[in-house]
Design a protein that fits this description.
Helix content is about 25%, strand content about 20%. By secondary structure, the chain is α+β, with helices and mostly antiparallel strands. The strands form five sheets. Strands 2, 3, 4, 5, 6, 7, 8, 9 and 10 form a nine-stranded mixed β-sheet that branches. β15 and β16 form a beta hairpin. α5 packs across α6 (about 170-175).
């Protein structure tokens, strides 16, 4: 297990730069275009070799975008967005994460009815009804399933209670481990079941997203702010049922998000082509039509630098029962019939000394001692953690041995030989 560093705060500013086909064709110097793109997206590469390689990738994506946009008869356009320096393989490896192969049992299905589409509005946008939180960014972690699940729970919670609360994907990534695999993929249904079994889920603010998997914070796990009472699977390949569900609340869906055009999508109604092999999870937040063409309004988890500020319009009623990119194949949504529990008490800080505190669920670690007294403290983002003697790292209680040379936390019983060697060198740290 990798060591956990002490908590710190950083802020980043990402700018969106969209190029239409005319702008691309008028720019003769791809090198200057790349330099401008790097500045806008705050790209800094480790070496000139790395920068040259990224430029070659950028050039290839530039050609792909230009060829698509110059056709002129497509319903959507592409752009040199924030992912324009990634190969398609790199993009697929870092930005997906739906795992249909994890499906282990059947769930409750929505019952079909003859009056299926009666009283269904011709269009709906749950963003306009205040039931959709801001677009989030999963980063290089295959946790799209967690963002899709929290988005659906956020939506039904707003509809039922009138309050829009941003919920914690990190709690699902860290703690939902029965079937789901954190950054290595998962399914929305299992996330719903986790929230049901845990009697609720914490907020994004209290248990913020880190972009990687960490040890489950048991203290945060007990802060149950929003609850659900069940979930429903929409019958596969039934677009009318999916439309009915989306008319009532935001709906989690699986799609194929690995098409190259999907990576560089900019705006318009996405029509593919794309496979129906599911590998990505998103959230339907509404539907509408434009010039007689029906589409879904879909919220993604790749930040606002992709698509239309993080959203995509995907063709609806394409004549295929799977739906475009398989969007009709794996849809589900949570149910809520009971109020949320009372708001939890404000978090109690962890006291280090008379004047110094860490947040609830953190451990005080001494950063500097004089004559046996600690005069400076740092906060480890783990409860009941072991503080390493390098004064920069800490380890979880179940991995209590610090190997500061390799930056690892070890179990005592499973790494006896390694621990003995460390102790001989005076580098093993217990507490």
């Amino acid at each position: 297990m990798s060591m956990t560093g002490f908590s710190s705060f950083s802020f980043s500013l990402t700018f969106l730069l969209l190029f239409t086909s005319s702008a691309l064709s008028s720019c003769s110097d791809t090198s200057e275009l790349f330099e401008s793109w790097c500045k806008q997206h705050d790209k800094n590469y480790s070496s000139q070799e790395e920068k040259l390689y990224r430029f070659k990738v950028f050039e290839d994506n530039y050609d792909f975008v230009t060829r698509h946009n110059e056709i002129g008869n497509s319903a959507y356009t592409l752009s040199l967005n924030a992912f324009a320096d990634l190969t398609h393989h790199e993009f697929k490896a870092s930005r997906l994460g739906l795992s249909p192969a994890l499906l282990r049992f059947d769930h409750r299905l929505l019952q079909e009815s003859d009056d299926l589409l009666l009283d269904i509005p011709s269009e709906i946008d749950w963003r306009k009804k205040g039931a959709v939180t801001q677009v989030k960014d999963q980063g290089n972690c295959g946790a799209c399933w967690s963002f899709s699940a929290t988005g659906a729970i956020e939506g039904i919670n707003k509809i039922f209670t009138g309050s829009l609360v941003s919920l914690s994907e990190q709690e699902l990534v860290d703690c939902d481990r029965t079937y789901n695999n954190g950054c290595d993929g998962g399914l929305m249904d299992y996330a719903y079941q986790f929230v049901i079994d845990n009697n609720g889920i914490d907020t994004e603010e209290d248990y913020p997203y880190q972009g990687h998997q960490s040890t489950c914070n048991k203290g945060k796990l007990r802060r149950r702010v929003v609850t659900i009472d069940g979930y429903i699977d929409v019958p596969p390949n039934n677009e009318n049922q999916l439309l009915k569900a989306a008319a009532n609340q935001p709906v989690s869906v699986g799609i194929c998000g690995s098409d190259r055009a999907f990576q560089l999508y900019s705006k318009g109604i996405f029509t593919g082509p794309c496979s129906t092999s599911l590998d990505h999870a998103v959230l339907i937040v509404g539907y509408d039509s434009e010039n007689g063409v029906d589409y879904w309004i879909v919220k993604n988890s790749w930040g606002t630098g992709w698509g239309m500020n993080g959203y995509i319009h995907m063709l609806r009623n394409n004549g295929d029962s799977d739906g475009l990119c398989g969007i009709n194949r794996l849809a589900s949504y949570p149910m809520k019939t009971t109020p949320n529990p009372p708001s939890p008490s404000p978090p109690s800080p962890t006291r280090c000394d008379l004047f110094t505190y860490c947040s609830e669920g953190e451990t005080c670690c001494c950063a500097r001692r004089i004559l046996g007294f600690c005069i400076s403290w740092k906060c480890c983002g783990l409860a009941s953690a072991v503080c390493c003697k390098d004064h920069h790292h800490c380890c979880p209680q179940d991995y209590p041995v610090c190997d500061t040379t390799r930056g690892q936390c070890l179990k005592r019983t499973a790494n006896a030989t390694r621990i003995q060697a460390l102790e001989k060198e005076g580098r093993s740290v217990i507490g």
